[in-house]
Amino acid sequence: MSVVTQTLKKFVNAPEDVVKESLAGLAAAHPDLLRVDFTNQVVLRKDAPVAGKVGLVSGGGSGHEPLHGGFVGRGMLDAACPGEIFTSPVPDQMLAATKAVDGGAGVLHIVKNYTGDVMNFKLAAELADDDGIKVESVLTNDDVAVEDSLWTAGRRGVGVTVILEKVAGAKAEAGGTLAEVAAVATRVNDRGRSFGVALTSCVTPSAGSPTFDIGPDEMEFGVGIHGEPGRRREKIRSAAEIVEERADAILGDLKPAKGAKVLAFVNGLGGTPAIELYVAYAELTKQLERYGVTAARSLVGNYITSLEMAGISITLLELDDELPALWDAPVHTPALRWGT
Amino acid sequence: MSVVTQTLKKFVNAPEDVVKESLAGLAAAHPDLLRVDFTNQVVLRKDAPVAGKVGLVSGGGSGHEPLHGGFVGRGMLDAACPGEIFTSPVPDQMLAATKAVDGGAGVLHIVKNYTGDVMNFKLAAELADDDGIKVESVLTNDDVAVEDSLWTAGRRGVGVTVILEKVAGAKAEAGGTLAEVAAVATRVNDRGRSFGVALTSCVTPSAGSPTFDIGPDEMEFGVGIHGEPGRRREKIRSAAEIVEERADAILGDLKPAKGAKVLAFVNGLGGTPAIELYVAYAELTKQLERYGVTAARSLVGNYITSLEMAGISITLLELDDELPALWDAPVHTPALRWGT
Questions:
Q1: Does B206 contact A at CB distance below 8 Å?
Q2: Greatest Cα pair distance in chain A
Q3: Which of B19, B240, B281 has its CB closest to that of A29?
Q4: Ramachandran quadrant class, B332 (left: phi over 0; alpha: psi -120 to 50; beta: rest)
Q5: Which residues of B are catalytic?
Q6: Contact B11 A302 (CB under 8 A)
Q7: Kind plus residue range of the DSSP H or E element containing A333
Q8: Is B144's pLDDT higher than 90?
Q9: Which of B221, B275, B313 is the best mutation test for A, with the most CBs of A within 10 A?
Q10: pLDDT, tens digit, for every residue of A225-269?
């Protein structure tokens, strides 16, 4: 047992126990929704496997809560595999999760585009296939800030992952086949784009010091969810200016149809107060008007975070005829919950 | 127009516009749930007034979001009156809200125990009475950390306010009379106790510097939601030790019946990551076991905050036969939403 660093400004015991202690809290707080397999470190929907339903498995490094464990439950994920903080889970976790949620209709792996996650989910899918479980994978890569990055070849997977897990979960709940669930998931990623800005770094419990240095008047424009560098480091500007440039980056890449309807998602990275998230949402509304785009659905809050980083990411999903109903469908998870 | 301070580490435009710009974002994001009367600075349930239903009005300084504006909607508040940051709203706001939600069955004012809020809500109730609207008031004063405080005579009103607004909202939705809604609200306050701990200060946009100074290895044990001093300043300890002492303070004061069931609420003050909130919940579960108390319901997240303060408050509500069903009843607000 290590001794807790007394100057770590966190509600933790031993830093190396944070993930499993937090999972114990998640299981204790939500026994009506989920259970935790502590041997394999997997969060499971309470009644998994659901016979005849496509199983949804996601996972990745911890520190982004509620993603993914907070999205386990009816209408969303069947399982989440949390790695250590900012560290990919291992293939054995993913294989255990895949087996645990297979109800005979196959399993969809939802993978954010980070090298470790991609490699390990690929291996787990091959192992599951050896066991006779049909697995499809969908990769999220919605971050328009940078091509390639510290831990990524190609674009990073960020905010669209939250929406994708909700929408694909609804499709599976409605009896969609594995091919159909994978198709709608792919469509969500194709129609979604994101961009993040950080004002502060976060501190991982094991490091005990900021992940990156940033000046008192600076922001990281295009930051990744582990504090990876974005497009540039620059002086802080007003919310209006920051949101305008981000909207241009997202909408310039997405190129939505004139008159398009979008789901507008303003996400806090962990340390930004709600009052600022809504200031950003108000600014986003003005930018959408400028592009002739309407926000037909919204999501505002901390859903994919970087521990206590002060920052905001914006995700826009261009809706089509099917997506709104899948978004509105009932969901029962710790972090997203509505309907019966 | 003032010039935005370029070194303010916040997503804002002019600091003095934060509250109204944030309300514009709230209105834009949730048109299905609420609307904002910008003239009177009041957040209103979309379909207020509801004929024959008791109206619920709360309010207080901004900076504690989602409290209270994020709790406006069917099954919870009919109106919220946001003041400037950490500043009481004025009687005119409260009167306008009271008039707007009066459906003929009277109006309940839910008031956190801070001197300005108490005084202004009292005056608004008198003015409403002059207009022939029947008003009852309930005061929350659940914080066991300190008697009297910077802005309070007696105990401060904190976390129990969230639960009270949900429970009283359900009672009103079910057709309770003003006396019945006021009675259940009073009961929730009587059966609830809270205690908060801060690891960092917050920064208000207008001040631009920390509300209080705190050392890199210190915590404020018993902090208020505006950063008011608590019981003592001390060195940071482990999550287990912090939660144990808080549980003792709360349960020693609440003195629940042996075998009691509680609603256990672990609240983030704004800058604490979800992973730490769940570590705290796991520790709280151990403490409840020690007292022979069971958590029959839970709530974990940022619900009554102090901007981006790193800190956690714990609230325990001793349940009775009626309260669980009122808690479980449908609610449709930006921050608490379940059921149909």
A1: no
A2: 60
A3: B281
A4: beta
A5: 64, 226
A6: no
A7: none
A8: yes
A9: B275
A10: 999 888 999 999 999 999 999 999 999 999 999 999 999 999 999
A209, exposed or middle or buried, with CB in 10 Å at 0-12, 13-18, 19+?
exposed
- Domains in chain B, ordered, with CATH? 15-190 (3.40.50.10440), 192-319 (3.30.1180.20)
What are the tokens at A234?
A: 């620059």
Two tokens at B47?
A: 């379909």
Say yes or no to pLDDT of A94 above 80: yes
Q: Are A69 and A43 in contact (CB under 8 A)?
A: yes
Q: Which two tokens stand for residue B268?
A: 């983030």
Q: Are B155 and B277 in contact (CB under 8 A)?
A: no
Altogether, the residues listed in chain B come to a count of: 340
Please report the ipTM that was assigned to this predicted complex: 0.96
Which pLDDT score, from 0 to 100, does residue B4 have? 43
Give the relative orientation of helices A160-173 and A178-190 as an angle to the nearest 10 degrees.
Answer: 150
Q: Is A226 a catalytic residue?
A: yes
User: Distance of CA B165 to CAs A72, A315, B2, Å?
Assistant: 27, 32, 37
Smallest CA–CA distance from A272 into chain B, residue: B308
Is residue B2 predicted with pLDDT exceeding 80?
Answer: no
pLDDT tens by residue, B163-218: 999 999 999 999 999 999 999 999 999 999 999 999 999 999 999 999 999 999 99
Residues of B with Cβ-Cβ distance to A202 under 8 angstroms: 273
B32 in reach of chain A (CB within 8 A): no
**Residue A44 β-bridge partners:** A35, A79
Alpha carbon of A239 to those of A246, B14, B239: distances in Å?
A: 11, 9, 35
Q: Give helix B274-290 / helix B239-254 axis angle, nearest 10°.
A: 50
Distance from CA of B166 to the nearest CA of A (A): 16
- In angstroms, the separation between the Cα of residue A171 and the nearest Cα of chain B is 20
Render pLDDT for B102-119 as a digit per residue (tens, 0 to 9): 999 999 999 999 999 999
Binning pLDDT at 50, 70 and 90, where does residue A5 land? very low
Test A12 with B338 for CB contact under 8 angstroms. no
